[in-house]
Design goal:
With 481 residues, this protein is an alpha+beta fold. It folds into 2 domains: 2-228, 2-Layer Sandwich (PmbA/TldD fold); 231-478, no CATH class. It has 9 helices and 24 strands. Helix 1 packs parallel to helix 2 (69-87) and helix 3 (119-133) packs parallel to helix 5 (212-228). It is globular, with a radius of gyration of 24 Å.
């Protein structure tokens, strides 16, 4: 493959490109699911390459699933032709931030290769869960799924970079939907993860750690209990939000608005601009003094933990919010200089060989605080504890939001009491994070994976993780009405 890559780079230089890179990718996916006793299995193996160039100061990109000498030459010339045509419409030349020409190999870690585990064993787990769920007739939809993905990528550039990376990710989840036929009430309870599943950069061992069968009865019973639970109260209340739910809050209210291409109006699909405009960098009060949020491409098991991004930039760790102050953006080599960065933060990734890289979130996490969860609940005389996302919405600038969680509990006199359903909270991003007055410690901090973040047009999918511990927010609007 390196010979093919070198040939592509030779061609783009002959064609007049001032810069060029090629990504040759082979990935394999396996998805196993069971819904109401019916299994489904899907396997895909995809191979191809994408060539990106700068010609006359503008980007050109072309890709192909066919790897051969003739096709490499054809696609390389096509990418240059596209760049040359794009240059006729450019406003400014593309200028890349400096980055050493890395020559390296990077591999994610795991104990048990999930692709060596039989389909029968995977189905056995899901079918056991399904049987437990459907022991009660109130459960009308019983679902479980397991998902595995391995990617190998070769990246080479005209700068001299030569990087090989192999990434393995595993995950899955279960959910039970209960229906009260008399009232028409419908409630769903899932486990584990932000949106019906947890995904981690590990192997089969993480599926074993979930203990899906051992948690199935609890999930079923909570779904049924929610049918008769009290509705979420409405008004202003102190709220403790579980780390799982906070992961999605971080994703939507800080991750997307710090993507610099959205900030600059270069990409605005999927609720997409940002209130975090450049004049706010370094001086805007995003949250309370205890709010510290980092982007980290090195955190173990994170879905966005890789050695290098698709610009060939080595990943690191940096603050997006430090002591409550907005402190950083997600950048690539092209846009880093716009906000005065001499170096990219390594946030450029593509959804496969067929896509042009764009700024995507790294792993973004709220750093832990000092509280034990039991003490935080005891310190809250009246409020709500909520977790597990059910639905969400947020405006185009990522300011006004509303989230509904699967489950909640009233806090009365420092104790969890009644279960509540349809627990909804809303707010304005900086006011919400400004109301954060307590964060649980590292004993309660966990990294939650998102495997289906959408962005761009045509749409691209990306994966990342968000770490958080349960945290308290004062006087939050809850409920509807």
């Amino acid at each position: 493959m390196k010979d093919y890559a070198k040939q592509a780079l030779d061609v783009v230089e002959i064609e007049g490109a001032s810069y060029g890179d090629i990504r040759i990718i082979d990935d394999i996916t396996e998805d196993v699911s069971v819904k109401n006793g019916v299994p489904a299995i899907s396997k895909n193996d995809r191979t191809g390459f994408g060539i990106r160039v700068i010609v006359d100061g503008a980007w050109g990109f072309a890709a192909s699933p066919k790897i051969s000498k003739d096709e490499i030459i054809r696609v390389a010339k096509l990418a240059c032709a596209i760049g040359r045509a794009s240059a006729k419409m450019k406003k400014n030349d593309v200028i890349l931030a400096e980055e050493p020409a890395h020559r390296d190999k990077w591999t994610s870690t795991f104990l048990i290769d999930p692709f060596n585990i039989s389909i029968e064993k995977k189905l056995e787990i899901l079918l056991q869960v399904d049987e437990i769920f459907r022991k009660d007739p109130k459960i009308t939809i019983a679902q479980g799924h397991l998902s595995f993905w391995r990617e190998h990528q070769l990246f080479m550039s005209t700068d001299g970079a030569e990087i090989e990376q192999t990434i393995l990710r595993s995950g899955g989840g279960i959910s039970a939907t209960a229906v009260d036929k008399k009232t028409g009430e419908i409630q769903t309870r899932s486990y584990p993860g932000i949106q019906g599943g947890q995904y981690v950069q590990l192997g089969w061992e993480v599926i074993e750690s979930f203990d899906l069968v051992g948690n199935a009865e609890r999930v079923r019973d909570e779904a049924i209990a929610l049918l008769s639970a009290e509705p979420c109260p409405h008004g202003e209340m102190d709220v403790i939000i579980g780390g799982e739910q906070l992961g999605l809050q971080i994703h939507e209210s800080l991750g997307h608005p710090t993507e610099l291409d959205r900030v600059l109006g270069m990409e605005a699909n999927y609720a997409g601009t940002s209130f975090l405009t450049p004049e706010k960098l370094g001086n805007f009060k995003y949250g309370s003094d205890i709010v510290n949020i980092v982007a980290d491409g090195t955190v173990p098991t994170g879905l966005a933990t890789i050695g290098y991004d698709d610009d060939g930039v080595r990943l690191g760790r940096w603050f997006l919010v430090k002591n409550g102050i907005f402190s950083g953006y997600l950048t690539n080599r092209e846009l880093a200089g716009v906000v005065g960065q001499k170096k990219s933060m390594g946030a450029n990734r593509a959804d496969g060989w067929w896509s042009l890289p764009m700024i995507r979130m790294s792993n973004i996490s709220l750093l832990p605080g000092e509280w034990e969860l039991e003490d935080l609940i005891a310190d809250t005389k009246s409020g709500l504890f909520i977790n597990s996302n059910k639905s969400w919405s947020i405006d185009q600038k990522r300011l006004n939001f509303q989230f509904t969680t699967e489950i909640g509990w009233l806090i009365e006199n420092g104790k969890l009491t009644k279960m509540v359903k349809n627990a909804t909270y809303q707010g304005i991003t900086p006011q919400f994070w400004g109301s954060c007055d307590a964060i649980c410690n590292e004993n309660h901090w966990h990294l939650w994976g998102v495997d289906n973040c959408g962005k761009g047009q045509p749409g691209q999918r990306a994966e990342m993780s968000h770490g958080a511990a349960p945290s308290r927010f004062r006087k939050i609007k809850v409920g509807l009405g």
